[in-house]
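Researcher: I'd like a structural prediction for the single chain below. Treat it as a standalone chain; there are no partners to consider.
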Amino acid sequence: MFNELNSVENYIIYQLSGKNLNLNTDKEKIFKSKNWIYESSDSINRSVNDIFIEHDLKESLIKLNPEINKDNSLADEVIHKLKTILVSVKQVGLVKSNEEFFEWLQGNKTMPFGENNQHIPIRLIDFDNLSNNSFIITNQFKIQHSELKIPDIVMLINGIPIVVGEAKTPIRPAISWLDGAHEIHDIYENAVPQLFVPNILSFA
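Model: Treating it as a single chain, here is the predicted structure.
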């Protein structure tokens, strides 16, 4: 039976991660070249109230920032700053919060972690060597704030959700990608705006 899970969601996951690929075929090389790793939402170590996969984010901060590597507790200070931006979305609005978080993603923000409290740039993502980052794609990503919502597809870099996607069935003429776009923009962004603070792309 065709539905949005097995005909659209799984197809997207397959294209990005190679999950369910038959490694005995000549497509093995494609699977090895995929950057995105599929993890079921149930296997990810986070509560439904968490936007980040905090373990992955902390690990990346330690790996990508020499000063944090010397003192791992500094990673917690950065994560606290990032969580403050998530919380502030209710007061300042999604656009402003997203713009501020984007500055962090680009490596434009600093913290006083250098010698004599000198401010140094903090890297959340390694743009020079992409293999230094973790790329996770998951589905049915439960997120609870004012209410529980479950986006179909979420893609995370270093534990940060940067892409949200909504799948719709391809076999019901009354349903189209516009319904998915409506769900993301009018429902999810209002019910769980924190999820979209680090967002750089949504799709239906």
